[in-house]
Write a structure and sequence with these properties.
Number of domains: 2
Strand order of the largest sheet: 1-10-2-9-6-3
Radius of gyration: 24 Å
Number of helices: 16
Shape: elongated
Structural class: alpha/beta
Distance between the termini: 6 Å
Low-confidence stretches: 1-12
Order of helices and strands: EHEHEHEEEHEEEHEHHHHHHHHHHH
Length: 379
């Protein structure tokens, strides 16, 4: 496992967790809210700290999509206190309040309310969200349904981002977690999200380039967010080679961008992977390490991203090619194809486990597979 940490960070020690661990903890709190709705105010909200681009809001959004529950993303830096508390409207001799339509109303609904950019707003707006986050209510006007988990997110002072110190009163009510960039977790997600194989192959080959805040943070730098945008650029395929270089360097920085372009140059010389999956007898494993990583990533990508009617044939070829690869690379490709480990498998990946030649594959590579999988799950 490769877990990149921000070496610039000299902030007070926080409990650090990878994206998978964050998901596990949020699911636990959601189960508690469902089982004990009358104790909703006692169930601690989360404060997710982390560098820009580390995927704090994405973790929450994707968990809600997986669980098929509601998700409301409140971008606090774009709001005023009145957007939280409501708008006072004089009526006769009294004042009534018009509340925002953002807040969930159905008492039986479930979901997560994410207050993003909490550390980027001034104290007046932080004060406005105190009551909603901590007491789950706005006076006598509104109460958050018990099935909704409260989560906030923000950057640290050391991240060269816009930050405001959080008040101690607000901070003391959160469960604080620092989100660490986790390459293994990101690659497991990338295998199902259609991330371009040149990106995943490069990061397998050069994991140090996944998340690096050592350069000029006022320019492009490598992060989960910026690599996803490099992938989008490659999928569009509308640029010249020079244009791709300029875009890659602009997104992930000059050093990582030029390394990536060099990797792409060599990876372009590997055999046509779609053709290999149609004719596995033509398979020859490259000698260069970068081409080997590129080939493994491309095999996983095209295994799952081809015509559905030919999936069984591609699985046959993938298993057959894997039997002829060195064990470490075969294990890495199989783990990526299975979604990063048994806890992330879906019905599609189970077809690999049930393949008639899978046992023959494990007799060849089982030891390496178990070693690599333990490392991926430990990450």
């Amino acid at each position: 496992m490769t877990r990149s940490r921000n070496r610039r960070d000299n902030s007070p020690m926080q409990a650090s967790a990878g994206p998978g661990e964050i998901r596990e903890l949020m699911q636990h709190q959601l189960r508690q809210l469902k089982a004990f709705p009358e104790r909703a105010r006692e169930i601690a909200p989360f404060m997710l700290w982390g560098a820009p681009g580390v995927g704090k809001s994405s973790i929450v959004r994707e968990l809600c999509a997986d669980l098929e529950i509601g998700f409301i993303d409140i971008r606090l830096a774009q709001m005023d206190p009145v957007d939280i508390r409501g708008l006072p409207v004089p009526r006769d001799e009294r004042v009534e309040w018009l509340l925002s339509s953002l807040w969930p109303r159905d008492p039986e609904s479930r979901g997560i309310l994410l207050f993003d950019e909490l550390t980027a707003v001034d104290r007046s707006l932080q004060v406005a969200v105190y009551e909603l986050i901590l007491d789950r209510r706005l006076g006598t006007l509104y109460e958050v349904p018990p099935g909704w988990l409260m989560v906030a997110a923000g950057n640290r002072v050391t991240d060269a981002a816009v930050t405001t110190t959080m008040s101690s009163a607000l901070a003391n009510r959160f469960c604080h977690l620092e989100v660490t960039p986790d390459l293994e977790d990101w690659l497991a997600w990338a295998a199902t999200a259609g991330i371009h194989p040149d990106v995943t192959g490069f990061l397998r080959f050069r994991p140090e380039c996944f998340h690096d805040m050592e350069g000029d943070l006022e320019r492009g730098w490598p992060s989960a967010r910026s690599w996803e945008r490099v992938s989008e650029m490659l999928h569009r395929g509308e640029l010249s080679e020079r244009g791709m270089e300029l875009m890659a360097c602009g997104l992930v920085g000059l050093g990582a961008g030029r390394e990536f372009m060099g990797f792409m140059d060599w990876s372009s010389r590997i055999p046509d992977v779609e053709r290999l999956l149609a004719n596995p007898s033509e398979f020859e494993f490259p000698r260069r390490a970068d081409q080997r990583h590129a080939l493994c990533s491309a095999l996983v990508y095209y295994l799952w991203n081809g015509p559905a009617e030919h999936l069984d044939r591609r699985i046959d070829a993938f298993v057959e090619i894997g039997k002829r690869m060195p064990s470490d690379f075969a294990a890495m490709a199989m783990i990526d194809a299975l979604g990063g480990g048994s806890t992330r498998m879906d019905e599609r990946a189970l077809k690999l486990i049930e393949h008639p030649e899978y046992n023959a594959w494990t007799r060849i590579h089982g030891e390496a597979f178990d070693r690599h999988r333990r490392g991926a799950l430990a990450a």
